[in-house]
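Re: [ENG-882] Designed sequences occasionally contain unexpected residues at chain ends

Forwarding the minimal case from QA. Structure tokens:
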């Protein structure tokens, strides 16, 4: 089999470990979407879509149009880049997703009637170095608005919690978990702590698998906070996250790639 990695960073720990598992019997190829000017004439049997840039998504759509399996699909990945669409899909499906309001610009939010209380403001479009900030009052909002006034944003009501995010990941139905200090913490995130699946509150694993079904994702992450007494609140969903340092994740990804690969030549 020929397994394609759609990424500019094939040395990423998850991808490198997966490659090491596959290469004894299969060929692993890297397709950097930022350097490729077109889809390969002879594509791989399957592509793992780690990059989420506009060029990567466009390239993935071309490959899918030619019948090449892409994990995750371009459509599913695109949905997870738009936090407004993400929240709508999740809440419509009955998932416990944070209530989310959308504003066309951060400046427009600052010019409005003011904040109802502590909130979390995020860039509407998920990407590297996007905006995620807790705001406790209008003065903070006005100051933030001067830094990127035209940024489309979403606003979520801040829910008091322990300050730790539950990082839950899934690869083809296999679940992994860890604890990480919230990026809103004034002391920074710090190290990631291991978390056994058996230590998750009741119902959380089933909720994570439900996210995969609702969003048509095979490889994804779900950021959850404990809103009290084990009640989960989903604050973000990510297509193909890093999943660093999770024993068994590379094995699950390698098995998924081989399962999704096709032996039928693609025109």
């Amino acid at each position: 089999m020929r397994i394609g990695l759609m990424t500019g960073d094939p040395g990423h720990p998850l991808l490198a470990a997966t490659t090491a598992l596959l290469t004894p019997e299969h060929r692993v190829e890297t397709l950097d979407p930022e350097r490729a000017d077109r889809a390969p004439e002879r594509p791989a049997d399957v592509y793992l879509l780690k990059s989420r840039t506009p060029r990567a998504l466009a390239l993935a759509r071309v490959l899918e149009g030619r019948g090449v399996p892409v994990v995750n699909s371009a459509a599913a990945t695109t949905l997870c880049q738009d936090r407004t669409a993400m929240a709508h899909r999740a809440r419509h499906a009955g998932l416990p997703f944070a209530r989310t309001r959308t504003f066309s610009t951060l400046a427009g939010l600052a010019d409005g009637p003011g904040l109802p209380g502590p909130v979390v403001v995020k860039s509407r479009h998920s990407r590297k170095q996007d905006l995620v900030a807790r705001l406790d009052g209008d003065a903070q909002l006005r100051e933030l608005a001067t830094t990127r006034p035209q940024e489309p944003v979403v606003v979520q009501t801040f829910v008091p919690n322990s300050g730790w995010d539950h990082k839950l990941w899934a690869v083809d139905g296999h679940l992994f978990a860890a604890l990480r200090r919230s990026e809103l913490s004034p002391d920074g995130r710090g190290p990631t702590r291991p978390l056994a699946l058996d230590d998750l509150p009741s119902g959380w694993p089933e909720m994570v698998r439900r996210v995969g079904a609702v969003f048509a994702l095979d490889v994804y992450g779900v950021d959850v906070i404990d809103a009290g007494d084990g009640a989960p609140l989903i604050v973000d969903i990510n297509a193909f996250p890093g999943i660093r340092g999770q024993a068994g994740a590379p094995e699950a990804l390698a098995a998924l790639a081989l399962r999704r690969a096709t032996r039928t030549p693609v025109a």
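QA comment: On inspection the terminal residues look reasonable. The helical segments are 13-22, 54-65, 74-81, 83-92, 106-110, 138-145, 204-215, 249-260. Proposing we downgrade this to a documentation issue.
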